[in-house]
Specification:
With 121 residues, the chain is mostly helical. It contains 4 helices and no strands. It is globular. This is Cox cluster protein.
Length: 121
């Protein structure tokens, strides 16, 4: 009798990224809503990093660094809009800008110091 009927090596395994995307959204929203700086930054890093990993895994982007640069630019634009629109949203805007800066620095460090093994197909 087969221990795992219907399963074989030809099927892909499940991706872990949707779970982290689903966790990153409410964590960042709670941090931004209640003006909790570390929670907002951590949630945004979890969300955008997971989006970059999801894009890389699905094959939509060749380099993780490029997607991280685009996502950090989106965070910079959103944070700048929060900073310059209303006085009450300044600290929330700074949290988004810090998350974008950390994402950009993390992507650059990843690209410079982590070498991928190229596999010939």
């Amino acid at each position: 009798m087969d221990e795992a009927p219907g399963l074989s090596d030809q099927y892909r395994t499940a991706s872990p990224w949707p779970v982290f995307v689903a966790l990153g959204i409410p964590i960042s929203e709670i941090g931004l809503l209640f003006d909790l700086f570390p929670l907002a930054v951590g949630g945004l890093l979890l969300f955008t990093g997971s989006i970059a990993g999801l894009l890389r895994e699905s094959g939509y982007v060749e380099s993780t660094m490029r997607s991280l640069v685009v996502l950090s630019a989106i965070l910079f634009a959103f944070g700048g809009a929060l900073v310059f629109t209303d006085v009450n949203l300044v600290t929330r805007g700074y949290a988004v800008i810090v998350a974008g800066a950390l994402l950009l620095v993390g992507g650059v460090v990843f690209e410079l110091f982590v070498f991928e093994q190229r596999q010939s197909i």
